[in-house]
Amino acid sequence: MNKFALTFGILTVVLINACKKKEDSTEITAVQRTFSGRIDLDRLHSYAGQSRPAYITLDNSGANPISDKGATLGRVLFYDKQLSVNNNISCASCHLQQYAFSDTSVVSKGVNGTTGRHSMRLVNNRFSQEMKYFWNERANSLEEQTTMPIQDHNEMGYSGENGDPDINDLIAKLSQIDYYKELFKFVYGSEEITEVKMQNALSHFVRSIQSFDSKYDLGRSSVGADGPPFPNFTQQENMGKNLFLAAPVFDNQGKRTGGGLGCQGCHRAPEFGIDPNTKNNGIINSLAGGFDLFNTKSPGLRDLVGKDGNPNGPMMHTGQFKDLKTLIGHYGNIVVGPNNNNLDPRLTPNGFGQQLQLNQTEVDAVIAFLKTLTGTNVYIDEKWSNPF
Prior knowledge:
By secondary structure, this protein is mainly alpha-helical. The chain has ten helices and eight strands. It has helices spanning 3-32, 68-79, 142-146, 167-175, 178-188, 195-208, 215-223, 235-245, 324-332, 360-371, and strands at 34-35, 39-40, 109-110, 113-114, 248-250, 256-259, 267-268, 273-274. The strands form four sheets. It has a two-stranded antiparallel sheet with strand order 1-2. A two-stranded antiparallel sheet has the order 3-4. Strand 5 (248-250) and strand 6 (256-259) form a beta hairpin. The model is unreliable at 3-16 and 18-31 (pLDDT under 50).
C-alpha cells in the first residue's frame, strides 16, 4: 500500500467516526429535548392561545400573562412529587384532573398529616375578579399562593420550621435535577431556579385550566344573554337558571315571598366566580375545632359536578356537604351563629337569617341548572395531565 492510499484510508476512518459521533450527538440532543416522552419542547401544547367565549371578559392574569413555555414548566412542577420533603406529595395530589382539579377527600393528606381545610377546585381560576386566594384570602395573589403549600409543615414540608428544610433547600434539590436545568433554561434563558420563577410558572399552568364547553355555554352563545330561555335547556334547567339569577323578595322577618334565590349576587354569571366582596356564608365551624369565622372566598361554580352528575368532591372549606341538595338546603335556612360577626349581609335580609322557603320543584330545578355548568375537555385534555 502506497503512502497516499494509507493516508486516504486513515482520513476515511476518521470521517466515518466523526459522522457517527455527530449522529450520536444529534440523537442524544433529541432525547434531552423531550421530557419523559410526554413533553416535546419543539411542539408545545397551546396554553396561551386557547379560545374562550366573547362573553367571558374577566382575566386576573395581571402582569403575569400565560405563556406556552411557562405553563409547560408549571405543569411539570405541579405534578412533581419531588417538591415535597419526602417525594410523596405534589400539587396534583390535592387537585386531581379527573375531578376538575378538586379533591375527593374532606381534607387533603400532606407529608405531616392533613391540611386544615378542604382543597378548592382550580377550574377557571383566571376568570374571576377575586385576586386573593385560600378560603380566608391570606394570599394576595395566585403567584404568592402557589408556593405557600410547599412551605407548609403539614402539606409539603419545606417550612423552615419544626426542623423542616426551607424553600432554599428545595431550590438546591431541584437544581440538581437534569430536566429542571433544561426546562428553566428553556423558559427563562438560565438554569437558575428561584422561588419567583417557580411561582410564575405554576401560575401560568393553573390559570390555563379552563372549561367553556358546557351545556350552559352552548345555550349562552346561542341567545347572547343570560336572561332569555336557552333553547338547548329543558324547562327544568331554564327554571333553575331563572331562580339562580333572580333576586329574592323577603318579608320583614327574612322569609322569601317571591323572586328567585339570589345565587347570582355572590356567584356571578357568566364566569360564575365569587364576588370579591363576599363575606362568610354561615359555615363557621373548623376542622380543627372551634370557629373559622373569616372564610370569604370560594371556588367558581363551573364543574362543581362531574360528567356523572355527582359533585367533584365534598363542598365548603369543611368538606361537610356531599350532595347538592344539602348544599342548597344550607342557603335555604341560614342560622346566624352567635359568634359570627362576619356573615355576609346578603344572607340576612332585614336582620334575619334568610329563609328561602324552597319547595322540591325549585331545589330540583336549581340542581339541574348547576349541572349544565359542567364541561368535558378539562377532564381529558393532555396538556393538563400528569407528564411523569
